[in-house]
Amino acid sequence: MKNRIITISREFGSGGRTIGKEVADMLGIPCYDSELIHQIAQESGFADSYVKDTSEDAKVTVMGFALTPRTFGKTNDDYLWEVQEKVISELAEKGPCVIVGRCADYILREKADCLTVFIHANMNYRAKRIVEIYGERAESPEHRLKEKDKRRAAYHRFYTDMKWGYAQNYHISLDSGILGIEKCVDILQKLF
After folding, report:
1. Going by C-beta distance under 8 Å and a sequence separation of 6 or more, which residues neighbour residue 100?
2. E-strand spans in 67-171?
3. pTM above 0.70, yes or no
4. Fewer CB within 10 Å: N-end or C-end of the chain?
5. Residue 147 maps to which CATH number?
6. What domain range includes position 89?
7. How far, in Å, CA of 105 to CA of 7, rounded?
8. Separation CA 34–CA 55 (nearest Å)
9. Is residue 192 in some structural domain?
10. What CA–CA distance (Å, rounded) separates 15 from 176?
């Protein structure tokens, strides 16, 4: 029997993590975000901070070829990807849940009944939000947003060969800046 899973990919500062947690709370199911980092760290033997940082590292490419130590064999990143796939698959098999980030949409594409979601918003909304909620510096938050999104997109592309944020790769894409966090939560809860 397949389980119902919601995977949430999101632009930095769009509120995707908050939306995921609130949807899970409303549905009475687990939400995996930072808990996922901890589980991957435990299984891999790496520190939580290493797992968190490595999973967003963009792989530098030249003409489509990755410039990583992979040329010489499996890298720590490759090992973490394998552990991440295993942990996400096991969590999905346990029962309904919400999984934020970590390419869960791709990992579970054939393993579970998933609703794949992408949360986005305009730059002004996200800049204001990361300053107010995350305590980012008020000067030039746009640079931080662009850099973080660029790294997420590169990581997603490197391991999935799919374009991150491209509407055709998701069942639904929601603009949290226009709809608001609560409306996004309401929509996803009704689609579950």
Report:
1. 7, 8, 10, 16, 17, 20, 21, 31, 32, 33, 36
2. 97-100, 113-120
3. yes
4. N
5. 3.40.50.300
6. 4-186
7. 6
8. 12
9. no
10. 7
